[in-house]
Amino acid sequence: MPTKTTVPEDHRDDARPQFVLEALREHRHFVMCAHEKPDGDVLGSGFALGLALKAMGKTVHYFLDDEVPRNLRFLPDADKTQRTFEGIDPSALYVFMDMSDRARADDALAAVPRAQIINIDHHLGNKRFGRWNYVLEAEAATGILVLNLIGGLRQTVTEDIATCLLTAIISDTGCFLYSNATPSTLRVAATLQDLGADKDVITEQLYQTRSFSGQKILGRVLDDFVLTDDGICYSTVSQKLLESFGASHEDLEDVVGALRAVDHCEVAALLKESPDGSYRLSLRSRGRVNVMEAARALGGGGHFRAAGATLAGPLADALDRMLTAVRAEMEAERARG
Ligand SMILES: [Mn+2]
Fold it and tell me: How many domains does the chain have?
């Protein structure tokens, strides 16, 4: 057992997991928390850590003010999420996963005091909003940090845990397609498969199963997209279109990826109208242009190759602001040579 050290109230040494490990060992009650529009990384990470903590005799709740997306309902413990704070001990620690900023968490979590927050994340520019922070920006998925923690806790990676963590990795690497899938990421994935994670079930659910409305909307987006001379490929999805197919934002996963695949596209942009008339912008880069900076200029954030922001309407203004921000980043990239 490592020797006990006192956790400083505001420690910033967050690349090492030791303080988070102490908090996980010493506390009894935990709540796993997800960001809005939960994905395979945040849910897989939460269920994996939850399963390990329960094996240590701890109490674990999964707070999710949302439904588990259809394609992630195969995950162990996916049926145990709750939308209320019922049964949660007042002393519980809240584990915020996979978010650079606590504002990305469900609004219902806004009242959780910093003193009760553990922040585990791999996004660039993480705000270190927890009392305990464990942030590794170079890792492909939060799930890899969770695997480190489970190892640090000397807990067994069961088949269920391995499935959750491989889901996290497969989700955040686009099935190993993106450049964040390094040799080390692939080795971790192979180890998880050795430990019993069912790769075929995961890839079938995440990449080979699309909703009827999602496919219909993809068709419409591909029919309507614009490719500018400077390589910006964009399209929009209106509320009317979403409603006509009975589609939700969940059905739009990967649509922006289809735009990015267009030849000569440097940056892909998809604007999805929200019920309040604002637009949710998703940006994807082919690898030269830093779309995180473009998203930041628009009040959002993300990663170098994948980022997003929320833009006020009307559509023409939102498109204008998007094009300006992306072009500024293209200019900055050219200036860097
Ligand atoms: Mn992630």
Answer: 2
* Tokens encoding 109: 């979590």
CATH of the domain at 254: 3.10.310.30
Report CA(164)–ligand 1 centroid distance (Å): 13
Ligand 1 center–CA 244 separation, angstroms: 31
The helix/strand/coil state of 56 is: coil
> Given the structure tokens 């890899």, which residue do they identify?
144
User: For residue 10, is it within any domain?
Assistant: no
In angstroms, the first-to-last Cα distance of the chain is 51
The residue written with tokens 């990384």 in the block is 41
Same domain, 41 and 76: yes
Residues 68 and 172 in one domain: yes
Q: What is the pTM of this model?
A: 0.79
Structural domain containing residue 194? 18-207
- Taking only the tens place, the pLDDT of each residue in 233-264 is 999 999 999 999 988 777 787 799 999 999 99
The alpha carbon of 306 and the centre of ligand 1 are apart by a number of angstroms equal to: 11
| Ligand 1 center from residue 227 Cα (angstroms) | 29
